[in-house]
Each structure stands twice: as C-alpha cells, then as structure tokens.
Amino acid sequence: MKKNNSCDLKSCFMCQLTLKEWHPAIESHKRNFIAKKGEVIIKEGDPVSGVYFVTSGNVKVHKQWGDKELILRFANDGAIIGHRGISSSISTYPISATALETTKLCFVDIDFFKTTIKVNQEFAYGLLMFYADELHASEKKMRNLALMSVKGRLAVAILGLRDQFGLDEEGFLNLALSRQDLAAFTGATYETVFRTMNELLAEKLIIVKGKQIGVLNEAGLTDLSSK
C-alpha cells in the first residue's frame, strides 16, 4: 500500500467519537495509506498489528470457510476494519480485508487503539454498540443461511447493500459487485447465484448493467426477504 495524507481527523468512526483534545494524539500516531483495487489490506492468520478506518472507497471483509470464501460484510466511508483481531485469547486476525476499488485508509497500531478506548468514554461506548450491532447482524445472517432460500438471501443482500451504499442517479447500487462476491456474501455457489439473478431479472425485480445492480421493485424484494 502507498502512503498518503488524506485523513482529516473528522470522517472516521474513531475521530467522530473521541475527545477533540485527543485528536493531536491521533494525528501523531496515525498512518494513512492508499490500497489499489484487489489489494489485500489484512490477511487472515497474520499477527494483529492494529486497526484500519476507511477514509474513502469500499472494502470486503471475508474469511475462508473450508475451500470457499465467505464475505462477512462490506466496509465503506468511515468504517472500521481489523477490530476482530482484538481479543484476550488470540493474537492473529480471524478475517481478511480486500479493497474493491482504490481505497484510502487510516491505520493506528493496536496499543494506541486500546489506549484510545480507555481514555475516551464515548468512543468506548460507541465501539460497544458497534460490536453489539455486528453480532446481531451475524446472528441474523446465520439464521438466513439456515432457513432462507437463495432467492430470499439475495433479496436481503440487495436491499441491505442499497441501505448501506445508496443508489446512483440511474438507480444502481453505489457498489460494483461481481457475481462471485455476491455468491460469497450470500453463502451460495456462483452457479446458483447466476441462475437466481436471472430469475429476479425475469420477474422485473432488479436490473443489471455489468457488475452494477439496480432495484426495480422494492416491494417485491421486500416480500422475498421476509420469507
């Protein structure tokens, strides 16, 4: 990754919730980088060195599940990645993180990050709520994998990504996503996702242009996501 100086001490999750008096400490400890599309930012199994915040761009957070990749979530502007490596019992990252496009990142080492938690009460509370929300989302995803059809999981994924990334002027998700990544995110095979996407297209629930997905019938997708 290339170094850069894009951080404004305002945009990321940490800077928004820490004391202004703490910002000079962040300024002196942070390091800023640019990751190219497809570049691995964190590799599963590597020793934990710190956490990253996405200044701009999109990142997929994923892990190996046997011989398959499972995408746990996507991180965009302001989001934190690498926090899963904070543990009293493990010292390696349990996940990988890869840039989906040119992405600007802010990095702080693990010791400074832990000190920041201890000094900043509001940040500690915000991080606790973030972990709670992430656990809730993980449990919901596990339930969907066990009980929901692939079509329903695709509907949930598309609506969730719409809420997270928004739509452009043409009504497409502000995230270009390959079918392989969509399969890894929904816990299905590439072939099944390809076939199911064609069904959603035929039913005029979505529109597709290359790697871009647009929502045509939100009510129809919502109905599928509740089954």
TrEMBL record:
Pfam families, per the entry: cNMP_binding, HTH_Crp_2
A single GO cellular-component term on record: cytosol
Gene3D superfamilies found in the cross-reference section: Jelly Rolls, Winged helix-like DNA-binding domain superfamily/Winged helix DNA-binding domain
Organism of provenance: Pedobacter ginsenosidimutans
HTH crp-type domain location: 148-219
Domain Cyclic nucleotide-binding intervals: 31-117
Keywords: DNA-binding, Transcription, Transcription regulation
Record-linked PANTHER family: CRP FAMILY TRANSCRIPTIONAL REGULATORY PROTEIN (PTHR24567), REGULATORY PROTEIN YEIL (PTHR24567:SF26)
Highest taxon of the lineage: Bacteria
Record flagged with keyword DNA-binding: yes
This protein's name: Transcriptional regulator
A molecular function (GO) term: DNA-binding transcription factor activity
Family matches, as InterPro entries: cNMP-bd_dom, cNMP-bd_dom_sf, Env_Response_Regulators, HTH_CRP, RmlC-like_jellyroll, WH-like_DNA-bd_sf, WH_DNA-bd_sf
